[in-house]
Amino acid sequence: MMESRKGKCIVLTAPSGAGKTTIKRHLLEKYTEYLAFSVSATTRNKRPGEKEGVDYYFLTVEEFNEKIKREELLEYEEVYTNQFYGTLKSEVERIWTAGKDVIFDIDVKGATTIKKEYGDRCLAIFIDPPSLHTLIERLKERKTESPENLQKRIDRVKEELVYKNTFDKVIVNDILDATLKEAELMVEEYLGVE
User: Mapping DSSP to helix (H, G, I), strand (E, B) and coil, where does residue 194 land?
Assistant: First the structure.
């Protein structure tokens, strides 16, 4: 019997609005034969245009708590009251079974947990905004949050920026083209692709 392939994973983490989702989309498009996205589970409401199983697995708080009890999550966090995000173990296994490496787009605490779990099988990249002011402006421009939720996100950003030097690599997302090229080089080196 053939030994199953030991998959790798790449974690993109950053405060909200720093650009990790844009970078993730670019890497998935460029390295489609190597990478697959780990779709997270969440209890937050679906935003316009989001699709079940593509952007997130949307669960009720009860369903999420049941998955916690059954230890079906690799990591999870209650980001705000009754607003959970997490990574399903089954999602990682599904991607590795398909012969691809996993790319994550998750919060700082989740990224820390995944890095601890997988060690050298995981490349953790922190996407750093050029400045706190720039990041706050990006969040405001999104117009996806109520003023109260926007303030919660801004407060959280300040906490998350403290973690940046605990990851394998840091990319400052100032000029997008340069940021994307830097991310490509890191992925190619880590996965051994050209």
Answer: coil
